[in-house]
Amino acid sequence: MILWDIYEISSPEELLHNVKARGKIRKFSISINQDLIIENASDIENTVRFGVPAGADVKQIASFITTIFPTTKVTLVKEKTMNPVLSKLLINDIERYSII
């Protein structure tokens, strides 16, 4: 099973939703051959989350993000997550759910 590290992109000044941020970041990750999943956060305003395979170097992605959105901050929020849900981090707490 692939384990994912989850990062948050946030900005106090720039809009990150409805500006094609996810598409631009996804296209960049494809251009550098980096596996990436990306989604708008629904639990935090003006925040986008992306996941990369655990331990992957995100320097190029973080640099690209701050190039297109200069006031953004990229923060690691969760490591080694199985099958992550990016829109709402609380869902990733495996102890929270029962399958029976």
Low-confidence stretches: none
Approximately how much beta-strand content do the residues carry? 25-35%
Termini separation (Å)?
Answer: 22 Å
Form type: globular
Using the 3D structure, state the CATH architecture: 2-Layer Sandwich
Number of domains: 1
Percent range of helical residues? 10-25%
The major pleated sheet works out as: 4 strands, antiparallel
Please describe what this structure looks like:
- This protein is an alpha+beta fold.
- The protein has a single domain (3-83), classed as Alpha-Beta Plaits, CATH 3.30.70.120.
- Helices cover 21% and strands 29% of the residues.
- The protein has two helices and four strands, in the order βαββαβ.
- It has helices at 21-31, 59-68, and strands at 3-10, 37-40, 47-53, 73-82.
- It has a four-stranded antiparallel sheet.
- A hairpin with a 6-residue loop joins β2 (37-40) and β3.
- The radius of gyration is 14 Å and the shape is globular.
- The two termini are 22 Å apart.
- 19% of the residues are buried.
- The model has no long low-confidence stretch (mean pLDDT 95).
